[in-house]
Amino acid sequence: MNTAQQNIELLAPGGDVEAIKAAIVAGANAVYCGLDTFNARNRAKNLSFENLTGILRLAHHYDCQIFLTINVVILEQEIPALFKLLNRLVNTTIDGIIVQDLGLFNLIKKYFPTLNLHASTQLTTVNAGQVAFLAKIGASRINLSRELNLKEIKNLTTIAHQYQLLTEVFVHGSLCIAFSGQCYSSSVSVGNSGNRGRCSQACRDEYETTDVGKNFPLNLKDNSAYFDLPELVDAGVDSLKIEGRIKGAHYVYTVIDSWHQQINRFITTGRLLHNDNNLRKVFNRDFTNAFLKADLTKEMFIDNPRDHSVQHALEKNNAVTIVHIEDVKKTLYQDKNALGATLNDKIKNLSIKQRQLTLHVIGQQGEPLTIRITVEDPSNNKTTILEARSESLLSIAGKTAIDQPAIEKRFKNIHFDCHIKQFDFSKLEANLYIPFRELTQIKNKLTFLLNDSIDLLAPVDVPKLARHPKINPQPTLSILISEEKDFHLCDITDADVYFKLPESFKEDSLKFINLLNDNPQLIPWFPAVLIGKDYDEAVKILEQVKPIQIVSNNTGIAYKAFEMGIEWIAGPFLNTTNSYALRTLKEELNCAGAFISNEINRIQIKNIRRPENFKMLYSIYHPILMMTSRQCFFQQTVGCNKASIEDGCMLKCKKATTITNIKGVSFAIDKQRGGYPSIYNDEQFLNIDIVNDLSDQFDVFFIDLTDIGTGSKAPLDKTELIRHFEGLLKGKDEPQFQLYEMITSSTHQQYTQGL
User: How confident is the model at residue 4 (pLDDT cuts 50, 70, 90)?
Assistant: First the structure.
């Protein structure tokens, strides 16, 4: 794409008001920020609604857009509060809403269609089917997964543009080692879910020294694509996103200013600036662009999660003596202070205060009542005059006059983004009257003018959902296997048997096509992450097997199943937590049923209402996934002879080890052949309580009998496990004790704690 014709948006983080001001003056084209509820950066200071309305005026004065993050999963009991927020947002000039929850797509598309929907990075968008799915449910922009390389980004951007979708790519800031939206480590370990904006950053934690001498083996360097701008432009990317909503204004200003200069230089000259010194003067963990370059080596890691700026300055200046080290540090701090002083000077006069109104009430007998408003806007230092008049002429009052208290009461809340500084009644004669309905008409006219001549939309009530009956009167059992050695289990149970397909096939999908065709009793289970050729091979399985039913944890495969008329169930890794998410899946993709998230508790589950003819499923026994990564967990733990991850690693590697944190808790690192490396909790998930609590809610209870995630634990007799779980669902007491005896290390803390 010709850079002269391409609009390259620079998208900045805004964790608080000062950071947003910093982004604006540094040259950001857009800022993403969150309110104090419903956003995925609860550790940021975030904004009040009043802050937001002021920010909108200030930003728009500088031609900067504002996107609001509502990028968390939504709980059923939060829907009324969410509607209250949306009813307010729809009457602002917000430029976009960033969304993770599939139910929120359904609600906004139906009831608030004027709001632009952006798909969050938490949706792990990595393949063409997901792009089509997001277009169908109402997205106008997608944030591509940060693990993708330039070739993959270019391909998906081309596809997105065919659907009139914009693409956004993360180009600078902290890197998670796990796929976004597929990390449960914080939820499992300390009860703070990343899907609710409360990530405790387990990937930055210290662990016992590994075999290769690392104490922070999951800690990645920060991402920086500063010198990859030409390739990103060539890929057709629409927006370059900077991470950092928990960073301060100084960081935001420095990074946005540096990137703004780089973009301007490239657009005007076709060349790059070759100095990223200022980026290295603010917080960083050193830099890598390895995901973009598809060069996943151990050089992506750094064994220190803290600020690298001082160390970089010392290395750059070859400082080894005490005197030289102190001089370098002093110079660095002086430079930081100078950048801070520049920022303070630029934002000191920026204001987000509400518009200040003076209402002049003018009227005398025989003339219309006139209300003239003087509007002072602190965001641009402009003063404007607005005016409205009554249709009737003022007459001598009988019992009721249009007096000062009546007018003040009627006009005190004229607009949510305005503060009435004073009323001026000096030109209003006493004891006059017009019909009070005309006061309301005047107020409505002035509200319209204060709202940029846009009618305020009336509030929408929360829709009432019918409670439809279950499909299965008594809950049935379903099981998951992943190896041919477990096929005999199909013969000992009436349970549905799902077969877990790997994340990577390459040209090996024929093996699984033959396997599924030869064993039609197996229901294919598709994983959450399928990238590039692996997605294409997964589609090939659908096309050549044409199964009656599938389970998919990936919305791209779900979209293809919908197109082909294949019945599908939404898997547990789609993070489904409310009735409206079920409706999105049912109404948009004809979904037949869905797993409810294991992150929510009994109270949060019990009021979820299924669509008609829709199954609800829940996993009562499984290894607890903490995180899955495109990077390698073995490079920094037990070591690996390969210089970098290659295609063969996915297809052949089947390593396993453990990692132990400084509290002495060990976690299993497992990798199935054809899968991504993953970390699992030391305990298995076993939730017998839900069978007693909510059997009337669920059609199917599920158990995972794959060997992945078991670490060094002794294998269990799977036939015996099935018998006990079947007995449990029949209401027998003895299987409960037998299961606890067999599964010696288990927890269902997520069910008791919830989100």
Answer: very low
In this prediction, residues 54-79 reach a mean pLDDT of: 95
Contact assessment for residue 547 and residue 566, using Cβ atoms and an 8 Å cutoff: yes
DSSP letter (8 states) at residue 227: T
**738, exposed or middle or buried, with CB in 10 Å at 0-12, 13-18, 19+?**
middle
Over 468-507, what HEC string results? CCCCCCCCEEEEEECCHHHHHHHHHCCCEEEEECCCCCCC
Q: What is the mean pLDDT of residues 4-17?
A: 86
Average pLDDT over residues 453-470: 92
Cβ–Cβ contacts within 10 Å for residue 183, how many? 25
Q: What angle do CA 96, 66, 415 make, to 5 degrees?
A: 90
DSSP string of 515-554? HHHH-TTEEEEE-S---THHHHHHHHHHHHH--SEEEES-
Contact by Cβ (8 Å): 281, 335: yes
pLDDT confidence tier of residue 712, bands split at 50, 70 and 90: low
Beta bridge partners of 222: 287
Encoded amino acid at 230, one letter: P
274: Cβ contacts below 8 Å, ≥ 6 apart: 227
- Provide the H-helix boundaries in 27-125: 49-61, 79-89, 102-111
215-268 pLDDT, tens digit each: 999 999 999 999 999 999 999 999 999 999 999 999 999 999 999 999 999 999
**Token reading at 15:** 């964790």
Residue 326 CA to residue 262 CA, distance in Å, equals 31
Angstrom CA distances, 45 to 123, 245, 478, 567, stand at 24, 9, 44, 44
Q: CA 176 → CA 91, 168, 307, 630, 736, distances in Å?
A: 35, 17, 16, 11, 39
572-584: average pLDDT: 96
Contact call for residues 176 and 183 (beta carbons, < 8 A): yes
Contacts of 230 (CB under 8 A, 6+ apart): 266, 272
Q: What angle do helix axes 579-589 and 102-111 make, rounded to 10 degrees? A: 70
The pTM of this model reads: 0.94
Three-state secondary structure call for residue 429: coil
Residue 278 pLDDT greater than 90, yes or no: yes
Reduced to 3 states (helix: H, G, I; strand: E, B; else coil), residue 33 is strand
| Least confident span in 2-11, 576-585, 598-607 | 2-11
